[in-house]
Write a structure and sequence with these properties.
The chain has 365 residues and is of the alpha/beta class. It has a single domain (50-338), classed as TIM Barrel (Alpha-Beta Barrel), CATH 3.20.20. It has 14 helices and 10 strands. It has helices at residues 2-7, 14-37, 50-56, 92-104, 121-134, 151-157, 173-179, 189-206, 227-233, 266-276, 287-290, 317-320, 322-327, 333-338; strands at residues 64-67, 109-112, 139-144, 163-167, 210-217, 237-242, 282-285, 295-297, 302-305, 312-316. It has a 10-stranded mixed beta sheet. α10 links the parallel β6 (237-242) and β7. The chain crosses the membrane at residues 6-31. Keywords: 4Fe-4S, Antiviral defense, Iron, Iron-sulfur, Membrane, Metal-binding, Mitochondrion, S-adenosyl-L-methionine, Transmembrane, Transmembrane helix. It comes from Colletotrichum zoysiae.
Length: 365
């Protein structure tokens, strides 16, 4: 009663006071639940150790690595040069151990490709989380055909992802069907695939992930003008590759894919390049530039040499270490540097496209 007198509420009916108290309790409970539900940002990544700093200064350090955790794919692109010859995927703990070894050897950028990485979403998401939270990898990107991506993945793991690259070779129904960019060749390739590409571009903007496109120029799309659609999608980078033959993967009819019928002439390649070179996001890469300039890791963490001549594999870095595995293949560091393999590759606070000329250049992959 003394408190009520102090507050000047002695004349207020008890029922009113009870209502006020009830409202206050409900409001407090609501605010408490909202605070508990609010997503917490990931903790800052650990800084590089003294040994990691020394490794990064090594001119031959594996600064940017492309990891193919699985060869499995739900699409049937006829020119694929990393074909579905095995359903193997490493145990998650072994994959994590491999990433740690790479980080300790000086890796700063990890690109996860395939196969189709999103056929294993839990494995993929845990690699992202582990790579950022526990290893502090500067930049992590994914290359995907986009068919299995859902918005939930962005909600759960988008904060760990810097770049998402989507493969899109055409905006024409018949062209996608001819290429095989569909579920095992079914004729739904086309519009469903293109619609999904636009959805993913929107999700990338919403969840602050840098959106990128990859296109393989081949006999079915070299004469297509993609300028309008690319400008609308506004990727920060549009990487355009010349169709490539890799011995041991796609060079003849004995392989899972025979890419010979997809090859183009140098004149056709030049025509496509000239048609799109006005786009600020456009980055062409012919076969000569690509050969030997990428560090590629297969599903068993073996380095692959897909340059000139038959494909070669190293021993697994899990068995012999990163340096020894790298010595067993040819990595053309000069070509890597020449094509501009290293940029400022971490996503900014607000991601935006570069086809409007507004964003700065980023990493090639």
């Amino acid at each position: 009663m003394a408190i009520l007198k102090t507050l000047g509420l002695v004349s207020v009916p008890v029922t009113y006071l009870a209502c006020i108290a009830l409202i206050a309790c409900v409001a407090a409970a609501y605010l408490s639940r909202r605070t508990q539900r609010a997503p917490q940002p990931p903790p800052p990544p650990p800084g590089p150790s003294v040994a990691e700093k020394a490794a990064q200064d090594d001119p031959d350090a594996p600064v940017s690595v492309n990891y193919f955790p699985s060869r499995e794919c739900n699409y049937a692109c006829g020119f694929c040069f990393h074909t579905n010859t095995s359903g193997y995927i490493l145990p998650l703990d072994d994959a994590k151990r491999g990433l740690r070894l790479l980080k300790e050897a000086g890796m700063r950028k990890l690109n996860i490709a395939g196969g189709e990485p999103f056929l294993h979403p839990k494995f993929l998401g845990e690699l992202l989380r582990y790579g950022k939270e526990e290893l502090g990898i500067e930049s992590i990107s994914i290359v995907s055909n986009g068919s299995k991506i859902q918005e939930k993945f962005f909600r759960d793991f988008g904060r760990y992802l810097d770049i998402l690259a989507i493969s899109c070779d055409s905006f024409v129904r018949e062209t996608n069907d001819a290429i095989g960019r569909s579920e095992k060749g079914r004729a739904q390739a086309d519009k469903d695939h293109v619609d999904q590409v636009f959805r993913i571009a929107g999700w990338c903007r919403a969840y602050n992930v840098m959106f990128k496109l990859n296109t393989v120029v081949n006999i079915y799309n070299w004469d297509e003008d993609m300028s309008v659609q690319i400008a609308e999608l506004a990727p920060f980078r549009w990487k355009v590759f010349e169709c490539l033959i890799v011995e041991g993967e796609n060079e003849n009819e004995s392989r899972v894919r025979d890419a010979r019928r997809f090859l183009i002439t140098k004149e056709q390649w030049a025509t496509f390049c000239d048609r799109h070179k006005h786009l600020p996001c456009y980055v062409p890469e012919d076969n000569e530039t690509m050969a030997g300039s990428y560090l590629l890791l297969d599903e068993r963490l073996r380095f692959l040499d897909k340059g000139n001549g038959p494909m070669k594999r190293s021993d697994s870095l899990l068995d012999v270490g990163v340096k020894e595995a790298m010595r067993q293949v040819k990595w053309d560091k000069g070509a890597f540097d020449k094509r501009g393999g290293v940029y400022e590759w971490q996503k900014p606070q607000t991601a935006s496209g570069s086809c409007d000329g507004a964003a700065k250049k980023e990493l090639e992959w």
